[in-house]
Amino acid sequence: MSLPKEYRYSKEHEWVKVEGDKVRIGITEFAQDELGDIVFVELPEVGDELDLDEPFGSVESVKTVSELYAPVSGKIVEINEELEDSPELVNESPFEKAWMVVVELSDESQLDDLMDADEYQKMIDAE
């Protein structure tokens, strides 16, 4: 499994790609692999506020339903509407096509609390 080095990662298996004052968020390859075949993705609305470590949506697989936890706080400025009709993108392309939301950060310092790719790899190796 390859992890994009420029991304940041949460202990809840979300990835964060910094894009200026915004971030793009999705779930990691490890997370989608653990969940199995994704059949439904529930996302918030544009304009909703994310609060650090609070649930903001869910991913349903053939095995289970898993909450998505906000790795940062901020306002949602875009959602990936493709996932509504094509939830399987989460399995096929977790880092490229299956991003879930774009968030305008309210506190950039929260990024410092996320793991880099090497730290995240160590965490999943230990699981």
Overview of this protein structure:
It comes from Aquisalibacillus elongatus. With 127 residues, the chain is an alpha+beta fold. The chain has a single domain, classed as RNA polymerase II/Efflux pump adaptor protein, barrel-sandwich hybrid domain (OB fold (Dihydrolipoamide Acetyltransferase, E2P), Beta Barrel), CATH 2.40.50.100. The chain is built from 4 helices and 9 strands; from the N terminus they run βββαβββββααβα. It has helices at residues 29-35, 82-85, 89-92, 117-126; strands at 8-9, 14-19, 22-27, 38-42, 49-50, 55-61, 65-69, 74-79, 101-105. A 6-stranded antiparallel β-sheet has the order 1-2-3-9-8-5. A hairpin with a 4-residue loop joins strand 1 (8-9) and strand 2. The longest helix is centred in the last third of the chain and has 10 residues, at 117-126.
Secondary structure elements and their pairing?
Elements: E1 8-9, E2 14-19, E3 22-27, H1 29-35, E4 38-42, E5 49-50, E6 55-61, E7 65-69, E8 74-79, H2 82-85, H3 89-92, E9 101-105, H4 117-126
Antiparallel strand pairs: 1-2, 2-3, 3-9, 4-6, 5-8, 6-7, 8-9
Modified residues (N6-lipoyllysine): 63
Keywords: Lipoyl
Domain Lipoyl-binding: 22-104
